[in-house]
Write a structure and sequence with these properties.
319 residues, alpha+beta, 18 strands
Length: 319
């Protein structure tokens, strides 16, 4: 399945044939669709490129969202295992995620119709993701990535200054930027960090969340469209939701989480025949009202802060 999808994307790319793709974290269930045919089971909005048909009815109720996260003790066991692996030198950074059961008056369709988000992906009867994070973009032969690493409650006084000066956040972000720079070097030349650790805010139903990202870019070979599938799969999984080094860290994640992530923290995007935009599937709600969230663990991570960050990331951008 993996090779057939990868080859299909290469073929479509060589033909300048537009398509949409959806790839799970484990690369076990990749999917793709030709944009020359109707897509019935996958709705998307990639930064304005969309097939979502807006209804005239708006969601005008107050958003009701109750969170039931995993117990602190359960999270602590995962956290302690990851910290031990880091202390042994097996990883520098591990993205640890958990599931939170929620109760809400929003359906997946309500979120698709009303979410304020840079990216929206909805695989019908399975999940909706309202991600703020770009995976890669390709424009005029340039490839760009915008790894996001570092979040804070933006309502805290001086939130921007606090997160940009936090030693743990500085080290974590530097690790991911170095990883993504190396990743892009596998598929492009002249890779450089053009904007390092810039701060943005996202509105949620509970208030503002601050986040820190960087911009990294490189120059693709002139025949990149013929290898578009190879490029996408070479960069998986996204560094910000796995860790460094990738292969060993993926093994640590698998043991710590003890469950497949599926499409959560996978990627999705579109190719219009020349250019590409894509996202990392975070801010992720499953059809069974299970919300998936997490954060990066380093040697400097604090157990209580990481547990709270995992909970804080459970939100919907409907307001």
């Amino acid at each position: 399945m993996l090779m057939s999808i990868q080859k299909q994307l290469n073929q479509w790319g060589s033909e300048n044939h537009p398509f949409v793709f959806l790839i799970d974290f484990e690369c076990l269930k990749p999917m793709c669709w030709s944009l020359k045919e109707p897509i019935n089971n996958f709705e998307y909005n990639f930064n304005g490129f969309t097939n979502i048909v807006k209804s005239k009815k708006e969601f005008d109720e107050a958003v009701h969202l109750i969170k039931t996260p995993i117990s602190f003790d359960c999270y602590q066991k995962k956290f302690n295992y990851v910290k031990t692996e880091i202390e042994l030198g097996n990883s520098f950074l591990v993205n640890l995620t958990s599931s939170t059961k929620i109760e809400t008056n929003l359906s997946l369709d309500d979120i698709v119709q009303n979410a304020h988000s840079k990216y929206i992906c909805h695989l019908k009867d399975e999940f909706v993701s309202f991600s703020p994070e770009t995976f890669i973009q390709i424009n005029n032969g340039k490839i760009k990535s915008f790894p996001m690493k570092g979040t804070i409650d933006a309502n805290i006084p001086n939130a921007k200054e606090l997160i940009l000066a936090n030693p743990k956040e500085i080290a974590e972000h530097a690790t991911i930027v170095d990883l993504i720079r190396n990743d892009l070097s596998m598929v492009s030349d002249n890779v450089r960090v053009s904007n390092y650790r810039y701060y943005e805010e996202i509105q949620t139903q509970e208030g503002l969340i601050g986040q820190v990202s960087s911009k990294i870019e490189g120059t693709l070979p002139s025949d990149y469209n013929e290898k578009i599938g190879d490029i996408i799969f070479a960069l998986l999984p996204a560094g910000s939701i796995s860790g460094a080094p990738k292969n060993k860290t993926k093994q640590i994640i698998n043991k710590a989480e003890n469950a497949e992530r599926g499409y959560y923290t996978g990627v999705a995007g579109y190719f219009d025949g020349a250019n590409l935009d894509s996202c990392v599937l975070i801010r992720y709600l499953q059809a069974d009202n299970t919300y998936r969230s997490g954060g990066g663990i380093t040697s400097q991570s604090d157990l209580f802060k990481e547990y709270q960050e995992m909970i804080n990331k459970v939100y919907v951008p409907v307001f």
